Amino acid sequence: MCSIPGLPAPGSTLPVRITRVNLNPSHGVVELWVNSNDDRKHIFERMMEEIQIPKRRFCEMEGRCGDLCLVCINNVWHRARIVSIHQQSYNIFLIDQGQPHAARSETLAWGQSDSFHLPPKIESCILANVVSVDNNWPQRATKFLNSLPGKRFNGLVQHVLMPDRTFILDIPIISKYMFKVGVARKLPVDQFKCFVLESLNLPNQEASDVCHEEKKGNLSSHPEKLNQYFYPELQTETYETVEVTEINDPEKIFCKLLIFSTSLKILSERIHQHYEVKSSDLGDAQPQACGAPCAAKGINGRWHRSLLKQNILADDPTVEVLHVDCGKTELVAVGDIRPLHEKFQRMPVFTYMCSLDGVKDNGTRWSEDQIDCLKSLLLNQTVVARFDSYNAFQNIYHVTLFEGSGACLNTCFMEKVGYLPDSKTENDSNVQSESLPSSILMAIGDEQNIHFPNKADLHVDELQEETLERTKNGGDDVGKDHMDSLDNNSSREHPDAHPVEQNGPHDGIFPVGSTIGVKISCIESLQKFWCQNTDNGDSLKLLMHDMKNHYASAHPQPLVDSVCVARHPENGLWYRTRIIASQHSPVVDVRFIDYGENRKVPLRDVRPIDPAFLRLDAQAFQCCLSRQKHPADPVTATWSDAALPEFQKIVDSVLELKCSVKAVTSDREGLPLNVVDIETQSGSASELMAEKCPEAGASSLVSSRAYLYSTHNIEVGGKEKVLITCSQTVDHFYCQLNRNLNVIAKLSKDVGQLIGQPVCTNQPLGVSSVCFARYTDNQWYRGQVMSPFPNLQVHFVDYGDTLTLKQSDVCPLATEESLIRDVPMQAIPLSLFKVPADVPQEIHKWFADQAVGHNFTISVVAKASDGKLIVKLYDGSLNVNQLVRERIGKVKQRKGTDPKANVLNCQTQNHVDVSPSRMKMNQNKVHSSDRMCAGAAVKTNNKSTTEISAPQHGTFTCSFVKETGNVWNVILKDKEVVLSERLLQSGHNVKHLSLPSIPEENVDVCMYKSPDVSPNKTEEVYASCIVGPHYFWCQYANTEDLNKVSELAQALGRATPDAVSPETLDPGSPCLALFSSDNKWYRAQVTGRSDNSLSLLSIDYGNESEVDIKDVRSIPPSLLEKAPQAFLCSLDGFDTSKGSWDDGVYDDFYSHLVDKLLSVTVLNMENRPCAAVPQYAVKVECENVVLNTEMQKHWKASCTEHVTAEKPPAEVFSQNGQSELNVMHKNLNTCKYKKPNMSQNKTEQVYASCIVGPQYFWCQYANTEDMSKVAKLAQEVGHGVSDTMSPGSLDPGSPCLALFSSDNQWYRAQVIRRTADHLSVLFIDYGNEAEVDINDVRSIPPCLMEKDPQAFLCSLDGFDESKGSWDDGVYDDFYNFVLDKQLDMTMASNMEDHTETGVPQYAVRIECESMIVNTEMQKYWKAFAIEIATTEKLVTSDFLPDGHMESSGSNRILKTCKYTKPNVSRSKTEEVYASCIVGPDYFWCQHANAEELNQVSALAQEVGNAEQDAVSQRTPDLGSPCLALFSSDNQWYRAQVIHRTDDTLCVLFMDYGNESEVNIKGVRSIPPSLMEKAPQAFLCALDGFDSCKGSWDDGVYDDFYNLLIDKHISVTVLNMVDHPEIGVPQYTVKIDCENMDVTTVMGQKHCKGFATDDTKAESLEPGDQAKDE
Q1: Which of 646-655, 1047-1056, 1477-1486, 1657-1666 comes out lowest in average pLDDT?
Q2: Are 1576 and 1486 spatial neighbours (Cβ–Cβ below 8 Å)?
Q3: C-alpha torsion sign, points 1084, 1088, 1093, 1095
Q4: What is the secondary structure of 1044-1102 as a DSSP string?
């Protein structure tokens, strides 16, 4: 911000080193401060020396704004420029630091005139092309930009903005990355300059004129828009992901850039809120002229940014407007037009008018049918658009649109409407055959929200709704300069995302004839090598970098899929892999999907993959070298032995390789195989190989073994009769075509014949292998392997089911059986059209129950890019899509605590057998159209209705419900009232049925049945009424009976006019009651009675209410036959006579249960006398969380409660995520195993086998000889004994043999606790715990009891948890210290039994790689205050009248500091800068990586500036942490009080090391958020110099200062002691600076009387160190 010569010319290249980055908080641009003068470093050093002698100091009020001067900071003069003056305070800008500073006049001086000739050392820049239009930077972008300081780049100077000397700098490598994360846009240079000038409001008339002229030019070239709306210009021949928002005809469609969808939706919401609240905008005149921007209320009731399409005349009731953000044109009322507020105009318009390139009407108008066809193809669809050209006069872009598969939609539309132009230009012909290049597909698919096959669906609409939910509370707060922007990385990922390795355009398959730039990553042979597309090299590097950081601290977890990550056995890096084989051993075979290499990897080096790492497609594709003679023939040559080295030599000798695809097939494992030729500068590899190495012969490649996929000639708009065979969700289910029933029947017959013949091979099963598979009905069907590991999953290709099968249930399909393989897959995937994305699970289940096994008609609306058909489903005339949407709405509105809750209003059909054999049986029948129910009962083939006569009652309606044998279950009704239910023999004459007489009086002795629950039975329920864990009601999730009861209750309630007599309604009496909240009738039970009202309990919901007695009816017997649909519950395991709940339990319990599907297991029952209803003690599981365990934290046991061995407390989880057990008052020391062979002070070589933290971990002997014997014997016994143990014998502590489900192996175990059908066991040879089914437990023979356990429980010695605690960082650090490393473990103290598990626990000392782990973990230990204030360390200080402190002893230190210790450890080298230097015995070092320091500083400013009240004058004792204002720069910093006089505190700034006097008004209390980060500086002293044995000469201080100041140094920590005066740790260190050993240099030059040998401080023993802390 200073006017200094020496400017670079626009267009010149400028080498820079970035020193600081700022994501401008108000303008959405990136500000950089760069050093471009490294080559003139010596000149600046000389200048700095010269300005240390100023010309003269300022007098009071001297200087004017803009003057150049010098400022003194920390006794050093710097060049500056005056920005503003306020009395004695000056705001100045530091020229060579590029940052503002606050100073007083006494610190300013005039400099010599030649002091300002040099340009600034640090220049201010704006990063070109990078902008967040609403200033919400994606996390990836923020992380990347914050990592730039210290790095060097070459930048291109686009402009220099004067007089502020701000460069607009384009750094291509940064821009390229920012393009990928979606915050960069290639803009014309002048346009971006104009944007910067307007955003920063820089006072420059010339620049303003430029912007004005540019806007004027835009206006003249775009006659339809005024300068108030800013349309960023798009570059032609570029690809963008767009949403088609409006279609007028093929030559006028509107496309919205998808990357800004969320931003625009937020803007739309804020506009709507703004204009709904304010009727007008502060008196602004209503816009009148055509083309004027405005806010308009559309016909949907929402406000939009709009443009007037006509002048508003005095008598016009309506006016035509264009909604610019969606392209829709509407007629709106003139009264619904408002002036558009300026704050809504700043957001650019990202919806562009487009025309399909090459699609013209040839002089005739487009017909309505043609336009409708285009709308069905494109409207509201997300596609990829290539912007081919721009017509400035018409303001229209000519585009070519592509779907996710790469197909050209322009061509697709022309084919659908049967339009082929008579004459084609060259460009038109290109359109006809064009497809989206694979490189573009990969690049755009990496970040954009397109549905590609096998890629993660990024549900943009859902994300927008979630974003809006977060902004709705913002009210009218739209006055910011910009809105929040879209973060691509926050888009929700599809849970089934996988790397693309199935059949699809990203499956490593390229169009024949295409040429790709490649790098060969793996060569097995010339018939099998792997290539990477070089276009995606940067994406792969970023992915590898992110995975390295992510999995550096990842703990082992169970594998759930064959796609995973694995650590390479040679370089230790993490890669994406797919498990291709496993022999149930600790080693698996994996393929590195980005490189092609196959390796054996230990299971301990395999982790589940985070879905975030599945966005990028698999980067390696498989190839074989084509034969020269017939390159197009999919036949590969067999080369001689010398061919492979020769081929390796060819590809290694060139930098650029091109891969030309000749044919595509698959290998013997069913994986895609590209037959290719490799092009080099010297020619093709096949030609070069043919010259040097003759072909040994040729062998045909195996054709693809995958089944053929076919849509069976189903076209969009076509209709088919189908049978639904399998349903996972409403947007993923399968059908078979009725017209293919004969084919399916023949397939079934052929499979049955083949499976009985010896044609099945024993070849291994890999991914995509075709096979025969046995279904649960014991029949064989065609299948395809989806995943061979960890469980064998097979997809039944003719039905759609995917099941986990045993190896014996799968038979590989012989290669030669091509006929059975060539029949296309008969199961066609479907998805319902226009169904919301967030469908409740119960709707999916209901749809599957209703649809599977029944016939429907489908109308195909569209085809997805993965082959799935988007359909409308009809059951006769019933529109199932509409029915599903209605039911979704009802379920979402349901409120569980009210009887009026909307429940599913449809009876569920009888359970349908969905096995393939059932499908096969149905196909042999004539399929009637079974209706999906829509509020009425389902009409089935065996249910009919007729009228019968009864002598006493006349004519009744008889509904035939179900036939069992020759007995019919019927319902008789008289005027909609159920009279009786009878079992009629099929042979009886129903017309002469005699019915019993109906009693007229009320029968009050009738009671409701008990709820249909039984002990140990699990029910799927919803919580319908929640009071707390001791009282809540559950309602069945299956609402079929509830619907019937509700329907009958309404009919009977309305049909019975007379109220019941009050005398007959005693407490406990059943009745029918009208609830006033929804005016509906419900079954109820009387709980109390007053004069004119009754207290009632709704027995189908659980809520209670007061009801007027006139709204109560007697209940007929028909409503007493159904059991109550809700039942009263309490959490099991909590006896209120032995404890109580805390107040927090009620909200927590309610939030866990409300509106969630629960699994409830009844364990006990007791009657509640007050309500006369049974109450059930239950176990509740919700979303894989056991609520009984989760609520333990709120239970307060009384002092007399004793936990018995029969009911041990359940497991709970601590905040750090580790498993802990409640401490039991009674030790479960019933272990019958021998104790581990351990003795005090004995050292063992071990491995850590199960790690929770330093207080709980298991060690296993490194010598595994005994372990192998035990494991072998356990398998023999486990497989040989078939009888399970009696549950009664399995008390906690009992030894047993248990089957571990993860590897299906038997292990020795000990019971920890028991539930109904499961046991929690501890595997005593490993230390891990697991839940096992009681059927998977065996009694353990004496031979397996002889060996003592091969693992033993440990805790680190020296840390008493009654005297301190661990901070959260210890768990990851401790885990990384001991994982997979051989440890030397020494038992330090006598053993004691662990209180929860009843096994011995040993306090141990561990040494790993020459480091004492106990010592290394000291930094994470937080001693309690009572421990710190011991007699030895207690500080007693008094404040004397003069303000000085008198200490009670020179050796007593201030141990009240609550900051964590600096993150340094012994023998570890840190990269630092010296931040405060006194001398070699006292100096502070600050970490060179300033990322955490920047975070702390930013938070400190926010807290300091927001907190108005100073800290209490009595609060800051010595050693207290605080936030202090540093007067030199008026900034807030973390500090610690070290001295106090009256109103002044002497503080130590913990992140820098300097001390300062601060007025108490400039001190604030420090929040917990600022205590979490360790101090960023630490106190040091040179190692080897004991002040008791010598001293330094006077010259040491300057020499030491000059050696360290402003230099990057390496510090190795050797020891630690507490500094006696300031109470912080001081580390003795060794320093290396510029390849110089500073310790040696200082010792040789300046020491006097020190010992000649290096005096090293002895290591603190773990116990002592813990005590000191």
Answers
A1: 1657-1666
A2: yes
A3: negative
A4: HHHHHHHHHHHH--SPPPGGG--TT-EEEEEETTTTEEEEEEEEEE-SSEEEEEETTT-
